[in-house]
Structure formats: C-alpha cells, structure tokens
Amino acid sequence: xxxxxxxxxxxxxxxxxxxxxxxxxxxxxxxxxxxxxxxxxxxxxxxxxxxxxxxxxxxxxxxxxxxxxxxxxxxxxxxxxxxxxxxxxxxxxxxxxxxxxxxxxxxxxxxxxxxxxxxxxxxxxxxxxxxxxxxxxxxxxxxxxxxxxxxxxxxx
Length: 156
What we know:
156 residues, 5 helices, two-stranded antiparallel sheet, alpha+beta
C-alpha cells in the first residue's frame, strides 16, 4: 500500500499518479480554491504504480490505514500546502470509545469448536491481523486453558 510524503508532493506528481491509478483510488479535488489529493485505501489494491510514478512523493506504507466506516479509509493531502489534512477526531477513536462504553473495557471472546473444517478459525484469525486488527477496539480472542480441554475430551 502507498503512503504520501506530503512535503514532496507537487501538482504535476499528483496528476501523474491519478492518471496511472487503475482503480481510481487516487483523485484530485479542486474545490474551495485549493487542490487536494485523496487516497482511498478501500479501493487501492497495492499495485505500486503510484510509487513508481510518484518520484519519491509516494512510498511503501509502513502502516496501513484502517478505521471504522468508509470515510476512515480515505486520506487527504493539501497539494499546495504540502501537508496531510487530518480530521479533528479519528473515527477509530470514536468507535473504540463506544465499544469500551458498552463492554466496560476489553471484551475477551472464547470460541469453542467441537469439530469443523477450520474455516471459522481462519476467519477469526483474520480478524486479528493488521488489516482488521480488532484488538485496537479492545476485542480479544482468547484460548481456553489446556487443562480444561483435556478434561473435556473422553479418554484423556
């Protein structure tokens, strides 16, 4: 996934990367007398074409943008001002606060499987990877202690 070095971003680079983006994840908005570049991580496939065409203004991201809701996946930069446009409060912070108010802190979920194709376990594992990262909201998947598992299995 790409990230933008706002100090190196120019109008010509912004137009070039918008032109090479095959998924329309990059767009230029020229409203209110200023030009802004937006990057929609929900549409981005991480192809790297913008990094190649970006002349150092686009780099491989060390951290992927994430959040709750569609708008949280869109980042914006002021092209002339050379800075990222950041909202007052991140949507992630609002969602995390609401979840903690409901569960009173962390929510620990134990998933018990009596035998399956392992598809559910793969999906649960995906919820804890860096893309979804439910732990940022205080939601944790925990395992049962091994002593309990042994007591439940017949013949052990």
